[in-house]
Amino acid sequence: MTLTPPPPGRAEILTWLAGLGPRPPDAERLDSMELAWLVHQVEQQYGVALDDDQLERMSTIDDAVAVLAEVLTSHV
Amino acid sequence: MSRDAVVVPGATLGAEWVDDVLLAGPDDEVCFRLPDPIDRLNLRRLVLGRQTELAQSGFRPGGAVALRLPPSMAFVTHLLAIWRGGGQAILLDHRLTDYEVRRAIERLVPQVVVSPERPVQSGLRTFVEVDTDLASYSGHPAGTSHAVVQLSSGSTGPSKVIGRTADDLVTEVLRYTQIDGVPQRGERLILLPSMVHVLGLVGGLLYGLHAGVELQPPARLTGDAIVQAIGAATTPATVLGVPFHIGLLASVQDPPWLPQFKRMTTGGELVQAAVSRAFEEKYGVPLGNMYGMTEVGVIGTDLYGAHRPAIRPAPGISVRVVDGELQVARAESPYLGLSDPTRWSDGWLHTRDAGVVDSQTGLVSIKGRLDSQVSVGGLKVDLTEVEAALSSLRGVEAAVVAFDGAITAYVQLNQPRSLVDLEAELAQQLATYKRPRSVHLLNQLPRTTTGKLVRDVSTLRKAVS
């Protein structure tokens, strides 16, 4: 049996973003490259593709935490 | 296709170059896979249709048309139609704000502006479907005989608007054909960079059309989608992108065996050694590097990754280093209007990149920028443009914009304003990719004893804390 990991929290998302390179610690807004990187990470680690509406709602890190919690919880 | 060649006022090359260099080839040869194939016959028909639409909107030979479109067949067909109609295409990145577009239109007076009919929700798609709206503007001819006009970051002041003639574009397309390692007829190019910018435009779209290489954008900009695009056919596939895309592919978990994957080539900025190593270990294909500029196109390449991080000047390109700056031979200034002699003089383009040319091998090493231009995901941003935009906002006494892994702004106010208001107002003026990732409000910006603003990042950070 494969256990699906729980949805990522803020700290985990920041760790993913760190994979792209240095980022200002107080930057809350996600740029388009970071958004693409997050979506890619979710595909790789959860096997889930996010749709356009979900992407539209992910403009900050807190938005991303909320949307991923919703999407990945319902996915489980 | 009819051979009713249009005479292009002021140009040495008639509009038949579009047919001869880009659209010629067997009717059934596939040009695009979106994923449905579009062959040359279909492409020619689409271009002819666009020519009719543009003419009905007031476009005439020698006139300019501004394209404010995301990468799409609408962009491709309008671009070819403008050129085939003997006109000048002004390429405006679709991410520019209305303010930025208005300023460009006021300066360049196009006859027609082509925009999406309604806002495009592109998500992570690299190629979208759009219906277009054609707005008629002036009846003026274009100010110059350039075939394409592009804006560098910061559209005011001299040497900010770049023009290239049809001759120059054709020369670059033919230059690509002489570079060992580029995709060949019948092969595929998985195109990731925007066609509005020089790498995707000439290295992707124009070379692909000329050489009979199928252009295939992935369905989305994720690692899995790029892998799927490579694996979608058995013909050899080259991926063209920027370093960010290497990271996507390098972090795909357990990719399938892809014997058709031939090479990945990136431009834009240097690639970290660890990232390139991870990529090559995972896929076992060469990771090539290209170096170029909007003003020239491709300047040098290392498509086999044999000289990393150095590159070899492309065929027909002459370079030299003066006072540490790399310069490229260029007979005419590529700039519209006033030409800044520190950007182009006496037949040499000043790249503003620090460079070293090895006298034995001729290889060129790029050592970084000599000015305030930075690269954000392959897009060039001039920090002085960001600083000027911030400084123009009501209530801003002074601003310093620095790059410390991201664009960061430090602002001193002369009247109370909230950060939210400032950022919202800035968003009206600057495209998202140019905007600071963080803005710090300071009572007093650090200054030197002579009153100049301090730009040292560690000093600015200390002032915040």
TrEMBL record, chain A:
<dbReference type="InterPro" id="IPR009081">
    <property type="entry name" value="PP-bd_ACP"/>
</dbReference>
<feature type="domain" description="Carrier">
    <location>
        <begin position="30"/>
        <end position="67"/>
    </location>
</feature>
<dbReference type="Pfam" id="PF00550">
    <property type="entry name" value="PP-binding"/>
</dbReference>
<dbReference type="InterPro" id="IPR036736">
    <property type="entry name" value="ACP-like_sf"/>
</dbReference>
<protein>
    <submittedName>
        <fullName>Phosphopantetheine binding protein</fullName>
    </submittedName>
</protein>
TrEMBL record, chain B:
<dbReference type="Pfam" id="PF13193">
    <property type="entry name" value="AMP-binding_C"/>
</dbReference>
<dbReference type="InterPro" id="IPR042099">
    <property type="entry name" value="ANL_N_sf"/>
</dbReference>
<keyword id="KW-0436">Ligase</keyword>
<dbReference type="Pfam" id="PF00501">
    <property type="entry name" value="AMP-binding"/>
</dbReference>
<dbReference type="InterPro" id="IPR025110">
    <property type="entry name" value="AMP-bd_C"/>
</dbReference>
<dbReference type="InterPro" id="IPR045851">
    <property type="entry name" value="AMP-bd_C_sf"/>
</dbReference>
<feature type="domain" description="AMP-dependent synthetase/ligase">
    <location>
        <begin position="54"/>
        <end position="327"/>
    </location>
</feature>
<dbReference type="GO" id="GO:0031956">
    <property type="term" value="F:medium-chain fatty acid-CoA ligase activity"/>
</dbReference>
<comment type="similarity">
    <text>Belongs to the ATP-dependent AMP-binding enzyme family.</text>
</comment>
<dbReference type="GO" id="GO:0006631">
    <property type="term" value="P:fatty acid metabolic process"/>
</dbReference>
<feature type="domain" description="AMP-binding enzyme C-terminal">
    <location>
        <begin position="385"/>
        <end position="452"/>
    </location>
</feature>
<dbReference type="InterPro" id="IPR000873">
    <property type="entry name" value="AMP-dep_synth/lig_dom"/>
</dbReference>
<protein>
    <submittedName>
        <fullName>Acyl-CoA synthetase (AMP-forming)/AMP-acid ligase II</fullName>
    </submittedName>
</protein>
